Amino acid sequence: MKKTILYVTIEPIEYRRRILNQIETARQAGFEVEIFSLGEKGKDYKESIDRLNVKKITVPLDKGPLKFIIFNLKLFFKFFLKKYDIVHFRGLWVIPAVILRQLFNKSILIYDANEYFAGLGIFDKRPIRRAVWLSIEKMIVKKVNVLITVSEPIAQLYKKRYPVLNKIEVIRNLPSYQIPKLPDDNSLRINLKHPFVLFHGYFMPGRGLENLIKAISEINNINLLLVGEGSIESSLRLLVKKLNLEHKVHFQKFVGNDFIVSFASQADVGVSLLEPVSLNHKFALPNKFFEYIMAGVPVLASRIPTLEEYISKYNVGMVTDPTDPKQISESIKSMIENPEQLREWKDNCFKAARILNWEKESQKLSSIYESFKL
């Protein structure tokens, strides 16, 4: 009989490459897989996404404490009596339901700490909320069999914070290996004059997007394409209008995970400008950074320790100060105006992609899963 593994997340999984990769690894390891994730209000979801057994939990609120309380209560009543060999839960926000379930129905626990939650900027002005959530995290870590996280510095922070943790592994957010090609689907072809700079991801505070737009205003004959959605999209559009940049700053909705690398390969430069506003940002390794590399697109990255290390080691672009529009502008101009250097970085991206891919990274996760099949 197949061993079973349940994935739990309070996020919609459609654009979460990390969890989709993890699910595929579990399936390849011979597990029966089930997933509980957030269903966005007003959207119609099928029970299966890309052949996966996904159960969507909807809540009537978009944010606030009640969102998390309702989600965890619904989750608990859906899974507390069901048998799973492993519960692989993503993030701080589903821990209450997992703790309650362990009282009735014990499973092996894998905690995907995809961020350093103690260092989240959203807690800076909410000390009570921070104390509550971190006390909840502290309750679960004693029961966790393995904690996985996204970078070595974040792993070290968890080791220091919770010496009782049994095991910590770094599983990076790497894309599957592929050779990018121009998309067959015309709707995925980018009809912008070159050169152009690409950002894809969530439009959230602390990602340097306002400063990027201001930087583009200082450069002639260049386009910026912002692909995604998020809480600050309206303010970004207002800034573009205020600076009269509608002719050179363009917005587009998310591109699916299966197509993002080929889509991104059309760009001249990819940007990942996390601002070091928190420990979590300071030590992050964003998906998009590795997707640009897989696409053969030189990267302009934040001058933060993790990204600086990869830029230096693989020589795939430049780093800059994400808080300084002038420096961002000068960095983009320097990259675009040096075609020989761009070609060298592009070649280095393709070389690095043979190393920085999910097929290699997943071996570590597969070993974790396999260790619990005995």
Q: What percentage of residues falls in helices of 4 or more residues?
A: 25-40%
Helix/strand-derived category reads: alpha/beta
Count the E strands.
14
End-to-end distance: 13 Å
Q: What is the domain total for the residues?
A: 2
Average the pLDDT over all residues and give the rounded result.
91
Sequence of secondary-structure elements: EHEEEHEHEHEHEEHEHEHEHHEHEHHH
CATH topology type of the largest domain? Rossmann fold
Discrete helix count: 14
- Coarse shape: globular
Top-tier CATH class of the largest domain: Alpha Beta
Strand order of the largest sheet: 3-4-2-1-5-6-7-8
Question: What does this entry show, briefly?
Answer:
The chain is α/β, with parallel strands linked by helices and 374 residues long. The chain has two domains: 4-172 and 358-371, 3-Layer(aba) Sandwich (Rossmann fold); 186-353, Glycogen Phosphorylase B (Rossmann fold), CATH 3.40.50.2000. It contains 14 helices and 14 strands.
